[in-house]
Specification:
Layout (H helix, E strand, L loop, with lengths): L6 H14 L12 H4 L8 E4 L8 H5 L3 E4 L5
Parallel strand pairs: 1-2
């Protein structure tokens, strides 16, 4: 998620995974709308955690898969 790695690193990883036909995960920080709607830069797995950071109906409908984080630690 944003904060654990930079925005640029997160986007670069998503681009690489998409080109390889693999999947990347947004983490609990959500995803900027410009990336969310760009097939090359988007993460296919959207994470929903207890804080619901960045979670909107658009975010959820653009997911290939949804990961629900129930607990941490």
């Amino acid at each position: 998620s944003y904060g654990s790695i930079s925005k640029e690193a997160h986007e670069t990883l998503a681009i690489a995974m998409n080109r390889l036909g693999a999947k990347s995960n947004t983490g609990e920080g959500g995803e900027d709308v410009d990336r969310l709607l760009d097939p090359e830069r988007r993460s296919s797995i959207k994470q929903v955690a207890s804080g619901r950071f960045g979670v909107t109906s658009l975010y959820l409908t653009e997911a290939d898969d949804i990961q629900i984080k129930l607990a941490q630690g």
